[in-house]
Amino acid sequence: MKLISYFFATCILFFAACSSNSTKNEDKKPELLVEGIWHLDFLLSPNNILPVEFSLNKVDTVFEIEFLNAEEKITIKDVKVDGDKITIKDEIFNTWFEGKIVSPTKITGFWYKENVTYKIPFEAEQGIKERFPEPENLSNHQSNITGKWEVDFSKGTDDHYKAIGQFQQVDNYVTGTFMTETGDYRFLEGNMYNNNLYLSCFDGAHSFLFKASLINDVLEGNFWSGTHWEEPFVAIRNENFELTNPDSLTFLKQGFETIDFKLPNVDGETVSLTDEKYQNKVVIVNVMGPWCPNCKDETTYLTELYNKYHIEGLEIVALSFDKTDDFETSKNNILKVKNHFKVDYDFLIAGKASKIEAAKVLPMLNQIMSYPTSIFIDKKGKVRKIRTGFYGPGTGNYYKRYTDETTIFIQTLLKEK
Question: At residue 28, does pLDDT exceed 70?
């Protein structure tokens, strides 16, 4: 009888222990999303992948993401995880990711731009080291493209335009950018394998991919912007090549020395350069758009300039041309920019981004061919210089040269009576 009791007691303990362990195993959930460097592939087509990288970190109880392009880091704090769903929203541009968390190291989904009709599928995975996969037949003797290149985009067509390619290569690793007369393609990063060049970047608004082959000192390849644009390019080494001076592309029509406009600010109040605020001041009128990455770069620089020289008499006013003519939407887009960059100068709602609308606002100019464009006005209200486009920090010495020259120019204007 005692033996039977002992047997039943042992079985009860055994099943209780099994039940307890089973419950613990069922309650234990895998930790979602491994922190660290992630590799993300935009799937432009079945045979064309645009790779970028981001770091994922947990700050307190929420995730934060930084997209990495060469030395640039673009922080996105609006990251929401709900079960196996993740949403990543850019804080300035109207773009966002919607994904499914397949595992702690894998996410799949779509990237949306401005509305749900434009979307690109993506796959993101943690632990992949290379931006572009290294080929199995990698040669020990690699071509090196370090230096300056004269570039023709869409050569032989009506859409043809010139550019400067600037690249730095260490072993197989390549960084650089392309500069056009209206701006630059910002921070590009990638690899040179054998005679093949691969570069990409994601800046929150655009996803860029460049592929080219080097044959007899000529780079020939294609450029993709998301899924909506593709064009060929050809490049040759040319350390002496320069683009048209950006200060000569936009100018006042004959008979004009000044500009003026009457536009609403974000509070709906009409603002003009004839307002007392701008009298006897050095003024920079910045024609920009909240959708424009080059404008984002220039806003960063203009904010620094304003904070340094406002007390000496510098005023800046930005004319925002948006992709909508709805005032409230334009206002909200501008407030995102103001808040993100902590901007204290004025932003005005100028209308929809088009050459026709820009010509209506500033009819005394020959053209507005680029966002951004900056108009420099002296204390007497006369236009002294107009700069088309902006070479951002991704252009290296071109950026430094422009910002140094502009700082000196502003100092000169401020000293004038």
Answer: no
- For tokens 């919607």, the residue is 98
Instruction: Tell whether 11 is covered by a domain.
Output: no
Domain membership of residue 244 (yes or no) is no
Residues whose CB is less than 8 angstroms from the CB of residue 239 and which lie 6 or more positions away in sequence, other chains included: 147, 148
Q: What is the pTM of this model?
A: 0.89
Dihedral of alpha carbons 389, 393, 394, 399, sign: positive
Please give the pLDDT value at position 115: 82
Token pair for 167? 């690249």
In 10 A of CB 227, how many CB atoms? Answer: 18
- Grade residue 48 by pLDDT with cuts at 50, 70 and 90: very high
Using only C-alpha atoms, the chain has a radius of gyration, in whole angstroms, of: 27
Contact at 8 Å (CB) between 89 and 100? no
110 and 53 housed in the same domain: yes
305: which residues sit within 8 A by CB, 6+ positions away?
A: 284, 314, 316, 406, 407, 410
Q: Whole domain around residue 210: which residue ranges?
A: 147-237
Q: How far is CA 250 from CA 59, 181, 267, 291, 300, in A?
A: 46, 11, 30, 22, 23
Does residue 25 lie in a domain region?
Answer: no
**What CATH number has the domain bearing residue 357?**
3.40.30.10
If DSSP codes are grouped into helix, strand and coil, which group holds residue 169? strand
In this prediction, residue 8 carries a pLDDT of: 40
In a shared domain, residues 306 and 202: no
Q: Verify that 225 and 281 share a domain, yes or no.
A: no
Residue 311: phi, psi to the nearest 5? -65, -25
Rounded to whole angstroms, the Cα distance separating 361 from 259 reads 10
In this structure, is residue 118 part of a structural domain?
yes
Q: What is the pLDDT of residues 349-399, one digit of tens each?
A: 999 998 888 989 999 999 999 999 999 999 999 999 999 999 999 999 999
DSSP 242: -
DSSP class of 394? G
Reported as a single tens digit per residue, the pLDDT across 318-333 is 999 999 989 999 999 9
Residue whose structure tokens are 């790779």: 51
Q: Name the average pLDDT for the chain.
A: 91
CATH number, residue 151: 2.40.128.120
Whether 118 and 219 map to the same domain: the answer is no
Which pair of structure tokens corresponds to residue 184?
């630059």
* pLDDT per position as a tens digit, 252-281: 999 999 999 999 999 999 999 999 999 999
Counting the structural domains of the chain, the total is 3
